[in-house]
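Co-fold these.
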Amino acid sequence: MKRKKIIRYSLIVLFVIVAAAAFYIYKEYNRTHQDTASLKPDYSFEAADFIREFEVNEKESNKKYGDKVIRVKGIVKQVIKDDQGFYTLALGDTSSMSSVRCSIDSMHSKEAATVTKVGMITVKGICSGFNSDELLGSDVILIRGVIDHKK
Amino acid sequence: MKKAFVFLLSIFLTASVFGQRYFTKNGKINFDATSPSSPERVEAVNRSVTCVVDLKTGALQFALLMKGFEFERALMEEHFNENYVESNKFPKSEFKGKIKDVDEIDFTKDGTYKLKVKGDITIHGETKEVETEGKLVVQGGKINADADFNLKLSDFKISIPGLVADKVAKTAKITVSCSLEPLKN
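Predicted complex below.
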């Protein structure tokens, strides 16, 4: 009798563990990216200062800022809308080829559509790295960006 | 007099177009490694691709950040960056090549031109020669470039773990789309 009880309880515990594992795997497998608007920035910069950080030491900056949530303030140099309606905002000095390029999360495209060139703006995005070219200047790339209205 | 003017104008136009480089920093590259047995799309898009083309020599160059590829599912993106392409170790990919017979394309004339491109592509620290066909659309001083080709993941030492081997295709389809503008310098 006692043995039967132990087996029954063991089976229940095993079932709970398997169900919990299956639920965790299902959740993890279907996990989407968090909305950047809800994320707290790890670092805040003026666009020109952020570009300079990478120009001075790309390797260290990649380590420090890569995959981090960055808040960047700057002048809008370009508002680019692609053929599928996705927006990219380029921030920085209008006389320079270098910029912080922030591709806007499609959830926030409507807001990006209201952005005008030469205005001051603050964006928040995930830093994916740095591209530098003698001819084309330096660009820090942010993905899944949003327009940040917090002062 | 009129003929001389037309002649001079055509020389000016030819010189100004052929002397120019065209570029974009917002090129788009799609990566699709969906296998027939995959329950979902294994695909990503990178919208921050840099491309420069020299219309005179046909020299063509692409550069992108691997972490710039955006997947719909977070886990897939993490696996792509951490396990497959090792983005921290190999953050950039590039292509350096040439448009074949570039002098046969009349960039002063609006139209659609087929072209062949050959060059070296570097991904995951491995360089391979690729050759592909593409299309250039010249319209109103702008150039749109499109191409697609396949890449064998094993050529770039990208290994897929056995557990998901049948869910990820061994060959990825790469689709390139760039809207190029004249480079003023």
